[in-house]
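User: I'll paste a sequence; please echo it back and then give the predicted structure.

Assistant: Echoing your sequence first, then the prediction.
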Amino acid sequence: MTSADELGELRSRAADAAAGVIEELTGELADRAGDPDRCYLLAELLARAGRPADALRYIDDAAVGFQSAGRIMDTWRCDAGRTEVLGALGRHSEAAEAALRLLSNLGDPTGDEDRTHLAAGAHANLGACWESAGRYVDSLAEHDQAIALATALGDEVLAALMEVNRSNVLNLLGRSEHAASALRRAWRILEDAGEQGELPVVAINLGETECLLGRPDEGLAWFDSARQLLGADDVPDEAVVLVESADALRRLGAHGAARDRYRQALELVAHNPLGWIEPRAWFGLGDAERAEGDPNAAARAFARAAELFDAADNLPGAVAARLEATAASVDDPQLRSLATQVANAALDDIDPIQWPLQACLAHVRLAELVDDETVAKDHLVASVNLAKSTGIPHIVHRAEHALAHHLLDRGRTTEAEDHLDAAVAAIERIRGRLPNEALMLSFPRDTATTYDDVVRLRVGQGRIAAAFAAADASRSRVLLDGGILAPSTTIDPDVRQLEQALDALYDQFLGFGAASDG
């Protein structure tokens, strides 16, 4: 297997080679419009090198040259390229306008292969624009249209590639099982067709989808596959792998490891702009910083994420960032008022059908902020219903535990029990997919409190053995905390002996609890 240093050297050489070609072409193109073919080639190279702003200028110049030469199809090809580059720059409104204008110019493409190819691409790009703007239902419709056109052409590979983009939207709509099926089908088609260069992005999306479905073992394996498949010059895709895998690690509780990956990704995009991934990296970094005990760094990261989401006209992303930024605002009256305004505005602005995750989070946040217990419970019940509609384990856990905790604090143990059981089931769904040495990852710090509440409930019911069992589950997560994130750490033999003695003593207590419960 190629080492990290070797990959770094290859990446550097590839970047130097690409830079050399770009410099050569730039020097030759004194009259840009006079050689539109080379101009467009240079634009493609610049876009791949992470220089979309420069690429846009050359695309526009190429379009002028093609139009002057009466090469209408190539002019439309420039329009398609402009849409992609504007999207990469985060200028999604302009990108959507460009895609709609291209579709209008193309008219009905039926029977014309070249027009149909361009129309399929335009629909796919428009779908990406609507996704970035949070218009997920509209986005799905555009991707469906793009796939229908590719299928009509008999281009199975193009249709498979478009399924990859469609899967992102299915995940955002909480339809991850459908996304996983589509991605596996796309993988088989692309692999059979020998399209090795397209496999990394499929692996990335499969990794994200499997993690969302509570299958982190498969998800992390797909991320590893993606990194192995990436070429030396695939800097943008590497940034995506880092962010997607960091998201998975963060959801599983490995916040320190996730934070490191987010920072690596942000370093990459600082030199290779990738508009849609940067706000996600800042958002994830904020969550990881908060979990690692640095609320100020978290607030800065969430604020930056909100700015970038706003700049991209991504309402649900901006809403989520602001909701997380106000999470620590419960004790300060002034900040509490601001947090309540943000959460109420979120519910007013977002469509729970299109954005169930953000709506769920807004309900949970308002339940923490309102003084009326009945209203708080109503918000929590709404959050549970939305969470269930997504089928995403970590979202279900968060909502179910919030409602259970609310009920338990008010002595309503019978009502709390079902929701607490559901929260634990969501944790165990993830835990059951992991090898034993990775159990820590299945117990994020915030899930340990779920087991604390189970202990409270079981003690209140007089079920002492069940309380001990819940305490044991929580304790296992804590004891594994350091070992997984720092595997190179050696434990002093005396400390190990003491741990064994404590384990034996704990087991005696557990046995006593079982006997007394009988």
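Residues 391-518 form one domain. DSSP finds 25 helices and no strands in the chain.
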